[in-house]
Amino acid sequence: MSVNMQNPSGVADQFSLRRSRLTKMAMIWGLVLLFIAWCVQGTIIEDTDWDRIGGRNGVLASISRYFWLDWGLIGELIVPTIETFMMACVGTVLGCFFSLPVAWLGAANVTPSKHILYPLGRFLMVLSRSVHEIVWALIFVSAVGLGALPGILAIAMRSVGFISKITAEAIENIDPKPVEAIRAVGGNQFQVMYFGILPQIYPVVLATVIFEWDINIRRSAVMGLVGAGGLGLLFFRQMNSFNYGGVSMVILAILLLIVLGEVISHYLRKAVI
Fold first, then answer.
1. pTM for the complete prediction?
2. At the N or C end, where does the chain have fewer CB atoms within 10 A?
């Protein structure tokens, strides 16, 4: 109390500084709220056909159409469900195969060329992650036609970015001593990779692949929307025929497939750890 009385200017400075900070925060939050309001006004309020929605009753009536299930569609769900699961598995394995050279090029401590091949590897990682799986599927459908193959290729290409990036970063963070020891006794590049690098990154890479496979089950479920097979194609057909109960059945099948993938990936991750 005596310190404050002896130095009143210091207390005034603290209050002034606090008031200045609160004013700045209020201005920042005010600008953020104005920006959000502007986005909502432009994208929701002005861009929505509210007359077509028909108010609350219209929305509830539209949603209620999906509350019943078309049990007669069960027989048609078996093959697309299996196909979707297989697309995720094969696409993930193919993505792992494609990811290995990309990760090797994109890891700064093992790349053959830091000025040419390293930027190329990083560019391929960014390209894979930047293009959505539906866009990849459209590209491959136009290249190889309809069916599961374009879906598998799309999933593989989409998986390359994530798997190769995590793998490359794991390679860059390894302990260099085993690598130096293998090179000191005359080991070649393959022996360095197999005995010095792979044992250190194996748990990380395997956990990443399992996680990516879990995600690919979700991706494969919508590949059929662009003609790439699986449950997505059946979903598209039910929507076109206005069979809302069939749409709900397909959504339920996708949900069960994703739950199965979650259970399998959970136990696989526990086995790895």
1. 0.73
2. N
